[in-house]
Amino acid sequence: MKLEGIRVLDLSQFLPGPHFTMMMADHGADVIRIEAPAGEPTRHIGAMQDGMSVWFRNTHRGKRSIVLDLKRPAALDAFMRLARTADVIVEAFRPGVVDRLGIGYQQVRDVNPRIVYCSIAAFGQTGPYATRPAHDVSIEAESGLLSLNLGADGQPVLPCIPAADMAGSLMAMNGILMALLRRATTGQGDYIDISMQDSLVSWLVNVVGPVFSQDRTLVPHDERSFGGNAFYNIYRCADGRSITLGGAEIKFAKNLLTALGRSDLVALCALPPGPGQLPVKDFLRETFSREPLAHWEKFLAGLDVCWAPVKDLHEALQSPQLAFREMRVEFKPGPDPAARCTALGIPVKFANEPGQAVAAAPGLGEHTQEVLEQAGFAPAEIEAIRGC
């Protein structure tokens, strides 16, 4: 597989780091998850399946787990000895913590100049907010994204996906893979400072137009991506289900409006998002409300129009498309033939050396003995580390 031979020491917790290091494991990297004695918090958060949280399995499959209490000298020494053989180290403590522990980038680089060392923090390692604690929703709020995520009452609502976490995850993996590619030429590693806020803000490319070009605050219900465009909107059907139109190109507007007998409205769809498109929105709202979703699915199936029904998550994960793409993976977690578990699949599909979503996620410290033995630790040393 693509990352075979790459060793990763993962000190991170919760979502950004564990998510992308799992993706590296999917593609062959040896990911050693270094956990505190209390374990990764997500082992015990959310819904459980076969004695393990779904969250944990969806971020830790294919990894090996060892327990090191990094407040103890023996464990710190063990970490540094493992760091000598590592290609990548990932940490997500508050800025400054790893340096105080003695396992920061410079300390590791002294023993392994080829190391690619990635720090993930809410606001990065520098700047006036660097030491502020924050999880996803606070970063979405600070970055302006939450102000655009409004409910029917016009007030911000909690986001349904952890966009800042996931943006940070993917940016970190991009940076690490670029650094590994460059190392193949120079022989030198690098330090990567990932801010979850930076990562999220970099995703706002199609949203920041009014801010940059007009120096104004966005009015969500008038903006293209948030309800101002008739053909980028959500419409309720007669049975209470909803349908989306998701393509504002004029060709799509012409195709649908002509099929609905209102080609006279096509010209309005060329106007800027906002009040000028209200007649089109009103027409579509009234039209879709006349028939149930099943009627519109059949009607739209033969038209070249961007549309999709609004599915709940349970319904969506039964999708034949996701099944065909193996994005929902069913497997046996252990020797019990009746037990079945479900995990998310691998989104990067290689023609050669495809990734493999292994069933197993590690028990807490399951591989401590194995990893330390492979690293050359004597039995007495392992006993001292495990007992500390």
What is the topology?
Blueprint: E1 7-10, H1 16-26, E2 30-35, E3 48-49, E4 52-53, H2 54-60, E5 64-67, H3 73-83, E6 88-91, H4 97-101, H5 105-111, E7 116-121, H6 136-142, H7 163-186, E8 190-195, H8 196-201, H9 209-214, E9 232-236, E10 242-246, H10 250-259, H11 278-288, H12 293-301, E11 307-309, H13 313-316, H14 320-324, E12 328-331, E13 341-344, H15 368-374, H16 379-387
Parallel strand pairs: 1-2, 1-6, 2-5, 6-7, 7-8
Antiparallel strand pairs: 3-4, 9-10, 10-11, 12-13
Helix pairs in contact: 1-7
Q: What does it look like?
A:
With 388 residues, this protein is of the alpha/beta class. The chain folds into two domains: 262 residues, Rossmann fold, CATH 3.40.50.10540; 74 residues, formyl-coa transferase, domain 3, CATH 3.30.1540. The strands form four sheets. Strands 5-2-1-6-7-8 form a six-stranded parallel beta sheet, sandwiched between helices. A three-stranded antiparallel beta sheet has the order 9-10-11, covered by helices on one side. A two-stranded antiparallel ribbon has the order 3-4. β3 and β4 form a beta hairpin. α1 crosses α7. The chain is elongated and about 80 Å long. The model has no long low-confidence stretch (mean pLDDT 93).
